[in-house]
Amino acid sequence: MVMSREGLSFLDDEKPRIVMFCGKGGVGKTTAASATALHFARRGMKTLLISTDPTPSLSDILERDVSGSITPIEEVPGLEAVELDYETVIDMWKKRFGREVYEVVSSFLPVDEEIIEYVAGAPGIDEEFALSYVYDLYRGGGYDLIVWDTAPAGGTLSLIKLQEKFYRHLGDAARLYVRVKKALDILVKGRERRDPLGIIEEWRRLAENVLSMLRDERTKAFLVTIPEALGVNQTRRVKRELDEYGIKVSGVIVNYLVPEEEAERSEFSRRRREMQLRYLKEIEHFFGDELRIIVLHLLPFEVKGLEAIGEVEKHLFPS
Length: 319
What we know:
Layout: H1 11-14, E1 18-22, H2 29-42, E2 47-51, H3 58-62, E3 71-72, E4 79-83, H4 86-108, H5 114-120, H6 125-140, E5 145-149, H7 154-174, H8 176-179, H9 181-187, H10 196-215, E6 219-225, H11 229-244, E7 249-257, H12 260-263, H13 267-287, E8 292-297, H14 306-316
Parallel strand pairs: 1-5, 1-6, 2-4, 2-5, 6-7, 7-8
Antiparallel strand pairs: 3-4
Helix pairs in contact: 2-14, 4-5, 4-6, 4-10, 6-10, 7-10
């Protein structure tokens, strides 16, 4: 079985702009992301560690509150972190896009500002905004590297792609609006409003730019999984989804493997390791020809605090 012995050390030479960790909850994405961010910050890169996981645990792992706003990690110069939960993301969405949504919809339909709350509750809005939030940070250039703990579902990526097309077609169709704009201006005389066609075009470009960011060569995506049936099956699904949208996957991190020496100490550990090795072979079969496979062993301690994260870093980036 061919496994990468260098871990993620190859990233040191590739100088990525974004490193994404994808996978289902509870497989160690946040741990891998935190160790990676710590590694690059210690190498002198200004690094942002961001979690948009729907069940965030970044504050718990860092043992400090980084929820809702970008927070410097004082012990590690150049490292900052932020955790975005659902409520925070929706509030940010309202401030960023709420008024624009109202301006566009009210140009064509008799609605009031309650439409903002209605749209904010639409499925996928939180995940979609998280993508645009990361894009704003990426475009701003304030960080050498963004390390992203996320699980971009295929549904969200599909929504972004669909919207890019939808806004383009809507923009073409909505040009009919221009023909009656003078009449509408008379009806709403004295009311300040932005051109809805311009807003729609801005949305279309944003959707297009988010996809371009995710597809960029310097965006490195890693699938994090565990050597169990559910982990293997979900990893295959996420890989197919990312492939479909042109997002290059750089490797698979298999977490929580029982160490060989531990398996020798008890029948329970031996049987569990044997089970895990079967699924590890499946992972190598499915991905080994095209992706690096990095194995992280089950650790004898809880990963909380910078010291523990530093131990994970040593395993992910062996010298």
